[in-house]
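Weekly structure sync, notes
Attendees: PL (lead), two postdocs, one rotation student
Agenda item 3: pending single-chain targets
PL asked that the sequence for the first pending target be pasted directly into the notes so everyone works from the same version. It is reproduced below exactly as submitted, 194 residues in total.
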Amino acid sequence: MKKRIIFATGNEGKMKEVRMILADMDYEIVSMKEAGVEIEIIEDGKTFEENALIKATAIMKETGELVLADDSGLEIDYFDKAPGVYSARYLGEDTPYEVKNRVILERMEGVAEEKRTARFVCAIAAAFPDGMTKTVRGTIEGIIGYESKGENGFGYDPIFYLPEYGCTSAELAPEEKNKISHRGKALQKMKELI
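Predicted structure, written out during the meeting:
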């Protein structure tokens, strides 16, 4: 039987990405739901790393298994790195991303390209059954585009423009995105640690 890694998320889009990136590992990757874990976790860390550790440790204590958790978000330099660790809760807990993306584009109307710099940040924490923890970070630099484009990806992908690819991260093929994305980079680093 394959060993399991529980990945702490309820986000289907994220699970799909994680499974693709970790496919060559000798582990079965299961979501919290598939592992039957239902606990309320308060993410009150000040950094992506702190939040990822809070999640991973809480679920590892609950299950006694190896747990990976990520905390990721969008940092927009023009907004002083906001939404940052509040990316998922930006403009309210249940606000759809189409609305968040539209509001960001409206607030940045008329802002010159060199001031539109932004990055996706992903911190991944591993909590091992013996109590050891590790964190890694991956980032991808880009700019906030001028319109929402692309059907692939999720969240802020449609407004995150990658000048060297000439498209948004929502316009990249999933395989391509996983190679260069913040989550892809962080997961690759984590793979080497496990």
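Discussion points:
- Residues 52 and 71 are 5 Å apart (CA to CA).
- The helical segments are 12-21, 48-63, 97-107, 174-180, 182-193.
Action: rotation student to compare against the earlier draft before next sync.
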